[in-house]
Design goal:
It is a single chain. With about 110 residues, the chain is mainly alpha-helical. The chain is built from 5 helices and 2 strands; from the N terminus they run αααββαα. A two-stranded antiparallel ribbon has the order 1-2. Strand 1 and strand 2 form a beta hairpin. The longest helix is centred in the middle third of the chain and has 25 residues. The chain is elongated. The chain starts with a helix and ends with a helix.
């Protein structure tokens, strides 16, 4: 299973249409259809149902969508970390607290 194919799958799930997803991804519709078909074959599961109003995820497709979002997010974060490795200190700061005067003071200072 390749990251590119997971991105294709997520686009198809989001767009609800192979044609729209292919346009979004700048690939041809047959290319995207083939990638989705190969992914279904690899997993041994049907990922989409096709109807007159587009396509929808099957129960198995919903499971894959959740996992694919996690995987793609992790890959994106990892790539971003490696692209920014230049001795710069960075990251996220999370401060939790209750609604007290001390927290209001910390918020003002941080602002």
């Amino acid at each position: 299973m390749k990251i590119r194919v997971l991105r294709y799958f997520l686009a198809a799930a989001r767009e609800g249409s192979i044609t729209n997803a292919a346009s979004f991804l700048h690939v041809t519709q047959p290319t995207l259809s083939r990638q989705i078909h190969d992914l279904e074959k690899e997993l041994g599961q049907k990922l989409f149902t096709h109807g007159s109003h587009g396509m929808a995820l099957t129960a198995e497709g919903m499971i894959l969508r959740k996992r694919a979002e996690e995987i793609v997010s992790m890959v994106d974060k990892t790539e971003a970390e490696f692209n920014c490795m230049d001795n710069a200190i960075g990251g996220d700061i999370h401060i939790g607290g209750e609604e007290t005067d001390a927290v209001k003071l910390i918020a003002q200072i941080a602002k």
